[in-house]
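Supplementary Methods S3. Input chains for the assembly prediction are listed below.
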Amino acid sequence: MIILLRRGAAPADVQKLREDLQNRGFTLHESTGTLESLIGVIGDTSAIDINTLQARDCIERISRIAEPYKKVNRKMHPDNTVIDVRGRKVGNGSLQIIAGPCSVESEEQIISTAVSVKEAGATMLRGGAFKPRTSPYAFQGLEANGIDLLKKARDITGLPIVTEIMGEEDLPLFEDIDVIQVGARNMQNFKLLKALGKFNKPILLKRGLSSTIEELLMSAEYIMAGGNSEVILCERGIRTFETMTRNTLDISAVSLLKQKSHLPVCADPSHATGILSLIEPMSLSLIVAGADMLEIEVHCNPVNALSDGAQQLTPTSFSSLMQNINKMADFMGRNIG
Amino acid sequence: MIILLRRGAAPADVQKLREDLQNRGFTLHESTGTLESLIGVIGDTSAIDINTLQARDCIERISRIAEPYKKVNRKMHPDNTVIDVRGRKVGNGSLQIIAGPCSVESEEQIISTAVSVKEAGATMLRGGAFKPRTSPYAFQGLEANGIDLLKKARDITGLPIVTEIMGEEDLPLFEDIDVIQVGARNMQNFKLLKALGKFNKPILLKRGLSSTIEELLMSAEYIMAGGNSEVILCERGIRTFETMTRNTLDISAVSLLKQKSHLPVCADPSHATGILSLIEPMSLSLIVAGADMLEIEVHCNPVNALSDGAQQLTPTSFSSLMQNINKMADFMGRNIG
Amino acid sequence: MIILLRRGAAPADVQKLREDLQNRGFTLHESTGTLESLIGVIGDTSAIDINTLQARDCIERISRIAEPYKKVNRKMHPDNTVIDVRGRKVGNGSLQIIAGPCSVESEEQIISTAVSVKEAGATMLRGGAFKPRTSPYAFQGLEANGIDLLKKARDITGLPIVTEIMGEEDLPLFEDIDVIQVGARNMQNFKLLKALGKFNKPILLKRGLSSTIEELLMSAEYIMAGGNSEVILCERGIRTFETMTRNTLDISAVSLLKQKSHLPVCADPSHATGILSLIEPMSLSLIVAGADMLEIEVHCNPVNALSDGAQQLTPTSFSSLMQNINKMADFMGRNIG
Amino acid sequence: MIILLRRGAAPADVQKLREDLQNRGFTLHESTGTLESLIGVIGDTSAIDINTLQARDCIERISRIAEPYKKVNRKMHPDNTVIDVRGRKVGNGSLQIIAGPCSVESEEQIISTAVSVKEAGATMLRGGAFKPRTSPYAFQGLEANGIDLLKKARDITGLPIVTEIMGEEDLPLFEDIDVIQVGARNMQNFKLLKALGKFNKPILLKRGLSSTIEELLMSAEYIMAGGNSEVILCERGIRTFETMTRNTLDISAVSLLKQKSHLPVCADPSHATGILSLIEPMSLSLIVAGADMLEIEVHCNPVNALSDGAQQLTPTSFSSLMQNINKMADFMGRNIG
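Predicted structure tokens for the full assembly:
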């Protein structure tokens, strides 16, 4: 961390700053120029609150040099983290395909969809039981009943199940869920992240609509700091000024997350674009960019879906997409599943 | 709601669409042109999920005409909602000033700050007991103990207290809190919003960092739909490409919220800017734009604050700010308190 | 400027870096820690291209400490710049109100509008002769003829005229224009900025839709570096994710520009919001935030306007707005004109 | 275009609106509901200015249904436009690779770089002679001399040359340039677009930093409306809140532009990311997403580059990138060159 002192700062204030930092165990390196005077702060500065430090009159500006995330940092853990989900490995160079409907709507719907995505080659099943909806008047999910239906679908297909949690108090319902998803709107629900840090299940952590890559890593750090090291990061589109797509898929985030962190990276082309005709080109591009996992919405009957119909593939179009995903995985030397 | 049909849509698909909508109780008005064919859907369309409807092949585009929010809509409730907080009225044309530290840190700190903001003219006291922090290694708040200290400060000063809730499971601790704040990161924590809809306390709902004005209104709708009509909307800066300020204060949102909704509107110049020298000009501008309430961070000793020091005013500078707020309130015909 | 060296950087590379910087006349201050090694670069670093420097393998990160703008910087020129526009002073604490139509459409239209805004209290007249339009099929302005009509309106009302230039090659037409406006889309048209740097007229420089405050200052620096020191900075709304307003008025930019620079600051509530009912509250707020000048669109007959009708005030509503602007100016101790 | 009438609109105003639209040749289809009354406007509405129409009191809201772009629209021209650049075809399913330095700096530099990118497999040469720089104190390019050096490099290597124009008045210098680039900051320099519409050369039109996909298409429409139909659209990263990458590469825009328009699409991974380690994964992803052309910065000696050093590949790393681009092109059935 580098502190730029304000020109004409009172020497007593600067001395107080020095002492406070040294008392907290930091080593200081000073550089006094004619125009600028700097203090380099050496040590584990991740616990320093820059905003607070900046309240001191003698300080002009502070730059953090070290990354504030540690456990998720590839520098601290150079090898890829590999997460085992009922025998399927995430993060070892293979490619996992999560498919399924936006919401679990009925036994028939989830089982029919599960069977067809399994046939087409998906390796995990998704389906929302608790649905975060902008409007209180929209379908809110089948909740506990939806969880039960997912388990039935798993019994029938053998596909591990992925579903979203919306609050700590629902955790008991997730004890037998294979991957617990944290949605974009909850990426900084720190209460929930802390609870998941103590829960022994893989977590699929979606990037918030306007969260930076660093904030996503810090949210993963919350879970890891709690003791749970099975975190999968997920890019799902960010909010920008562009309105032609629902969100803007930040594909460079996928490659960058793989470089900055050892955690596996997933991407969700369905939510990122909201446009059916973009799902195939984006899925293939994401594989090339290094995604370990894709999450794709498929519904046995999108026209009658209770949520997000427009971006859900039919089983037929998903099957055709999987053929191209297979070819691309092959070309990239990646095994599906 | 207006549906633009795709050119060359199959007549059978269009007929199916017509029937489905009529079965849901909507009246249809069709307009068939040489280039474009439209179906106007008349009725309460707020429960229609546009994304799902759009899954139908026969549809090119859908535009929602009616606003999706109802209970918060000024059209449905032309008079200002006035909320009583221990005798202080919010929303009746008066001006309320919430002041206090970012975090409650100690008995001495909160009481000393409370006494001085009271003297300077603040009408409510803020202080964070549960703190949403980007880093798991940063100070997380005194939690239940912080709540107790706020009550002590209220006993001494008589100021109503405002503090943030981070999860439904903490609600029992908030039974004696005067205004419960929902932070920007929880604006779409729908579980929490639903729980607050059944809690009998005024809610200060902060706009998410990248939430639209409509989404803020929809989150307020969640609380009102649950039965709690005491919601105060709060603009606190949005995330944009600009980095010189911490966030971008969307002052036009304040005026617009007053026009679109009957709910009182608060604004937080401290978080919106993150820059001390901007707090006074922004506070005064916000009063002019129509804010019913301001929330301003004040700390008895910002240099030693455990969070957000840089944007917290000293009691002295807050006192000087209050003099100018008083003059502006006078000029605008607003009574403080 | 501070350079953080990469851990394990080759000593020869670092030595080369040192020599190159010293050869360019900079003084270096080094600080070698166990974790981090820094080089502070002292001198006028505004000509250093950070992107290029960063190509060196031995460098991890570079932070610029000094602001890259000089002539526009208040640190270099603490007193307000005051610009004389036909006897009206901009930047001396007074308040100037530019009013007029989006486009000059006809002699009758511009003169009728000019006479009424003069009567209502405007101090300058605006009107677009060259119009930057998103669509090539939209009205593009009367061009040279529009300039002539503006001069007629000035002859009749005595109001100085403000109009937009779109390209260097049109400069000869602007020799008798009182204030030359550079539109948001041309804020980084550096050819034009250079040409205006050598033109002896006040320039009203509008902030680009997604230009940072620093970039706006750098564009003003281009004009000043060319020799023209009469630049007025103008906030006119930035592009964000919010769609309810046309743009997002960044009111804190107005206060911040006044702090960072000695140049006068204008604001344009008409383009910033695009909503008639917001023009009055935003105009008054902007005065409070420190704007030296407001630019407001007024049209004698908005319903028949050839461009931007929806945000143009009628003469009657402008007159009523001016009454409130007068009261606010009075309260703030500002003289109009 | 659909007009939603305001509830309680004066019948005389609505009648006036009907007549004005009919007088302009539009056919109207009305739909009067209990809650909402609509007028559908049928005809070529691309010349209607929505902002002006909206000034009428009787109108609540207007939605444009038809796309405002015509000549660039794939609906009007289903086949791919193919542009011939000295025998190389752009847009016919092949892949063109433009490579070269950010700026032309010297004869030795441009020729050495040109020879090496040719050897590595690039099919066109880029190099900036006129440089748009944020700071007036930064290197501004060799201008006319730079153009001459590019031609020399073309003579030696046979590679067609691509270089940026900054103003209409420089056009005579571009008569022998193979592809004229319009930079992001000039995407809405309408004077320049109009001039290029009458110039008989292929134009590489870069998307503005915060320009929507629709605005990019409208700027291309300007050039085509002038008579020049050889336009190549270029995605080069947009400005968002994310700061870890220089810009955010909007890869879905590449696929979407190919769907919406018949024009060829280029992408620039160098400017989009500003990070060397992202150039390869993004280049390969962009090919998969459907880009017809990539523009990649390569410098014979990035450490001594006069601009943008950090994102310029060395000839060696470009050569290694080209090997992977070749494999991907092969896999996708695309011929380079």
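The interface with chain C takes residues 2, 4, 27, 29-36, 38, 40, 42-43, 60-61, 63, 65-66, 210, 239-241, 243 of chain A (CB under 8 Å). Chain A has a mean pLDDT of 93.
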